[in-house]
């Protein structure tokens, strides 16, 4: 059995410890805001925050998260939209929306430690892929959320 915390709640999964965190979140915890994109660590659609760091959840097993603190898009903000979510809406940084939760999680992790990220820092922290090409609007949204 693997135990850790997801969105402030203790979880224990009775599944193969090598199960990718992404599948445990989506299939066992019904936290479907975390998206499957490539399953290969390339697209970032599955990004969650683990112990303060943006992590691609398709690339970590639940065993690797043992004892850790996971935040998904559902747990990013309890009562109202997180500033990053508000900024994404204000800057129209969403098109089809499939990649958006991953971008939001990566941006949220970035601005916790950096209240004034440069374009280069944003580009380095958000290597997520958006087939719709919202990158300029995403960058503006991250700057808005950080300010
Ligand atoms: Fe995890 Fe693409 S689904 S990086």
Q: Care to describe what's here?
A:
- The structure is a single chain.
- This protein is an alpha+beta fold and 147 residues long.
- The protein has two domains: 74 residues, Beta-grasp domain (Ubiquitin-like (UB roll)); 64 residues, Orthogonal Bundle (DNA polymerase, domain 1), CATH 1.10.150.120.
- The chain contains five helices and five strands.
- The chain has a five-stranded mixed sheet, with helices on both faces.
- A hairpin with a 2-residue loop joins strand 3 and strand 4.
- The longest helix has 14 residues.
- The model has no long low-confidence stretch (mean pLDDT 96).
- FE2/S2 (inorganic) cluster binds next to loops.
Per DSSP E runs of 2 or more residues, the count of β-strands stands at 5
Query: Into how many domains do the coordinates divide?
Result: 2
Name of the top-level CATH class of the largest domain: Alpha Beta
Helix vs. strand class: alpha+beta
Please state the second-level CATH architecture of the largest domain. Answer: Roll
Q: How much helical structure, as a percent, in the residues?
A: 25-40%
Oligomer: single chain
Work out the strand percent. 5-15%
Secondary-structure element string: EEHEEEHHHH
How much is the radius of gyration in Å? Answer: 15 Å
- Biggest β-sheet description: 5 strands, mixed
Strand order of the largest sheet: 2-1-5-3-4
pLDDT averaged residue by residue: 96
CATH topology of the largest domain: Ubiquitin-like (UB roll)
**Mind telling me the CATH superfamily name of the largest domain?**
Beta-grasp domain
Q: How far apart lie the N and C ends?
A: 42 Å
**Which overall shape is indicated by the principal axes computed on the Cα atoms?**
globular
Count of discrete alpha- or pi-helical segments spanning 4 or more residues? 5
User: Which stretches of 5+ consecutive residues score pLDDT under 50?
Assistant: none
Q: Ligands bound here?
A: FE2/S2 (inorganic) cluster
């Amino acid at each position: 059995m693997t135990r850790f915390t997801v969105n402030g709640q203790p979880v224990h999964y009775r599944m193969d410890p090598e199960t990718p965190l992404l599948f445990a979140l989506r299939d066992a915890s019904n936290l479907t805001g975390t998206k499957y994109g490539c399953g290969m660590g390339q697209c970032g659609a599955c990004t969650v925050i683990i112990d303060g760091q943006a992590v691609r959840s398709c690339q970590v097993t639940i065993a690797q998260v043992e004892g850790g603190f996971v935040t998904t898009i559902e747990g990013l903000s309890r009562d109202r939209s997180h500033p990053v979510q508000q900024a994404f809406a204000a800057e129209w940084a969403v098109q089809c929306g499939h990649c958006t939760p991953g971008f939001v999680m990566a941006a949220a992790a970035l601005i916790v430690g950096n209240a004034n990220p440069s374009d280069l820092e944003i580009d380095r922290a958000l290597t997520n892929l958006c087939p719709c090409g919202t990158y300029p609007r995403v960058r503006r949204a991250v700057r808005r959320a950080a300010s």
